[in-house]
Amino acid sequence: MARASSKPPRGTSSPDPMPERIDPCLAVLVDKPPKGPDWAFEVKWDGYRLAVHVEPDRVRIITRGGYDWTPRFPSIAAEARQLGYETLILDGEAVVLDDQGRSDFGMLQRALGKRPSLHDPREIIFFAFDLLYVDGWDLRRLPLRERRWLLDPIVAGRAGAIRLSEEVQADGDEFFRVACEHGLEGIIAKHIEKPYRPGRGEWWQKITCKRRDSFVIVGFEPSTVPGHLGRLLLAARQGNDLVYVGGCGTGWSHDLSRELRKLLEGMATKTPAVALKRKGAVFVEPVLVAEVEYRAWTDDGKLRHASFKGIREREDEAGVFDISKTVEGPTPLD
Q: Which residues are catalytic?
């Protein structure tokens, strides 16, 4: 496939400075896929949202919250340098695939973890789904269909650490049904005529088979099995505060239960991070974030049928669920 043209996109006349960082476009959660020929669909990847910046003298891999995580993704950084462009910004998702070809967030976290793991960082794949800048030209003002036209020849057909997130124009309801049948997290719908805009907007929509969000771990309840974890106590952000949103008592193995219990006991505190009194609970410093899959919210603002999927340090605040800034969860709590 031919390389994307080095000529400036339509409507530009001189080179644009390369942005130091671009705030990502985020999808709004909706109940059903949109209809019409102006919508294209992709698989919803279950990983870390990243921007890959290829610069003349370096490659930088930036998280959604603006952190430089380049050292954590050496294979992606090395391959980005081989794409053949002096400057480039790719938007996409880093994932680890299971033996069924599905992205698995827990496997990704183990590959990135400091502890020994069966998963190697070289297993991490970056699925590129947007091109924001290339060789002196800022593409964000172009409609998605033109950005994808320029992206395809850069990464299409690659089978290494950087790959193309395939886009399909199909019936959204049917695509969503098939995605859920195959155990995927969901799908993303994107309006092909819209430019790239930071923040959440109706031009990108996500439809999930189950809901998935990040919550701060503020404590735990011990299991009746000595040395094991019974239940994580979770909180969401409400502006600058944390509010209790319920617990999670499933999703970990026997060994992980013991490991999590030991980890959290080392972070115990007498001062809860949320207004909560619970007999037998052990409160911890709010420094860890749990990835949780759940079905819905209860009327009183608690997670329903929550299941643990992974854990990370609270160094990248952007992904923590914020009740006060989203319509996806419960009514804001007083």
A: 44
